[in-house]
Amino acid sequence: MSGELDENLVERIDELDRQKISGEYHRYTGARRDPLSGAGARAHGGRWNPRDICATIYLATPREACAGEARRAAQALATTPEVMLQAPFLLHTVLATDIAVLDLAGPDALERVGLTVTDLTDDDWTACQSVGHAAWFLGFQGILAPSASGTGVVLAAFEGRLGLHQLTVTRSEPFTPDLYTSLA
């Protein structure tokens, strides 16, 4: 994905309302990673952020959605979640407060920005990254969308757009194979 914006997409997204969301979300990270850093997503890109454009913190709800995300990550590494989680990981509970998002979780929301359900699960992230780039450019603080795992929703929060304390870690616990199994 290049750094170029799709001007037509920017115009379509600019016509959409920013929805303020608050609530409890979850994220798993390596035990030594800052749970509120989107640096990894900035360096490597993610479903909703092109590489080197913006640091993005990926969160999900409910907690079971993290199990689905771990399953997808393990598959990408050609292993199982139980094997992957033998390394030290933490499952964090994060309180999100008044984050202005592009809400793609509701009915027909994906269609309004030119996406399909298939785009959410595709290994080619280009279409989703184009939407994320446009939303970031327009000053949205994140995107709320159905999880690629099929469980729950993902909040992709644009780190540089967030105010102090809009994301607060309220709990961190070891994300073990046993915890994964209880959530899967």
Explained architecture:
Strand 4 (142-146) and strand 5 (153-158) form a beta hairpin. Strands 1, 2, 3, 4, 5 and 6 form a six-stranded mixed sheet that branches. The protein is built from eight helices and six strands. It has one domain (7-183). The N and C termini lie far apart (33 Å). Helix 1 packs across helix 7 (126-137). Helices cover 33% and strands 28% of the residues. With 184 residues, the protein is α+β, with helices and mostly antiparallel strands. The mean pLDDT is 94. The chain is globular, with a radius of gyration of 16 Å. It has helices spanning 7-14, 39-44, 63-76, 81-84, 109-112, 117-121, 126-137, 177-183; strands at residues 19-30, 56-61, 89-103, 142-146, 153-158, 167-174.
Radius of gyration: 16 Å
Instruction: State the share of residues found in helices, binned by percent.
Output: 25-40%
Number of domains: 1
- Based on DSSP secondary structure assignment, what is the total number of beta strands? 6
Gross morphology: globular
Unreliable stretches: none
Tell me, rounded to a whole number, the average pLDDT.
94
Strand content range: 25-35%
Q: What distance lies between the first and last C-alpha atoms, to the nearest angstrom? A: 33 Å
Q: Helix/strand/pairing class, anyone?
A: alpha+beta
Largest sheet: 6 strands, mixed
Q: How many individual helices?
A: 8
Order of helices and strands: HEHEHHEHHHEEEH
Protein name: RES domain-containing protein
Domain RES: 35-170
Organism: Microbacterium rhizomatis
InterPro entries: RES_dom
